[in-house]
Amino acid sequence: MKNIIALVLFLLLFSCADHDTMQPYDKIQKAADINIKGYSKPDVLQMRLNGSPVSINGNTSYTNQIETKVRFVLDEDETDELAIYNNQTGAQVAKYNITYHNAEDYKNLYFFNLPGIFLKTYAVKPQVNLGKVGFEFIFPNLGEFSGASLTSVKGILKRENGMVLAEFDNIGKENFTAVKIYNFFSTSAPVYLELYKPGTSEPYMGSGLISVKIKQDIGANMIVIQEKMENGTMVVKGDIDIADYL
Q: Cα separation of 104 and 84, whole Å?
């Protein structure tokens, strides 16, 4: 009887030890699927996932249209880094820290890269009928130099004589506005975009009128509004037209 009891105790102890030492540790994981649509000109870019180059159609550097899907496994307690670099200079252009908890925010990742400007959006040239002018706007560095805490501004597009051509309720940082279209009237006359706090007639900063001179081309215009410092003074410019690259 004593031998039987001793054998049972031995088997129980062995079973516990075996469970503790041999049971695999189950990590909490999920799959990440990131659809990437980007554009870069003239810079050649390279994307790296945790330092390793991402290959697109066998290439680890790319320019113009850039489209791919990146798939990897996310551990609950880790952060994966997806970064974009200038392939010639090695400079980091953008970085995205992707975790188990924020992966849904990165299901679709868009970017548009030009010299001196990086937009976290994908640009599609709008359709504008012959004899018409279409405008879209984006304001990616709103507040960078002005200190404005706004996430968007109201824009009123006017002719030199003050005639209103179009109104844009929310020109934001992340995406282009919807296109507004009017009849083309001149190959040389500029148009002006006045910028206000949303829903008001107050300039978005300061007290003086903020009026940005905009080049008008027949067809589509996709203008990047920027705060800049010139000779120690902050100015607002609209001299980059994304449509020229598409």
A: 20
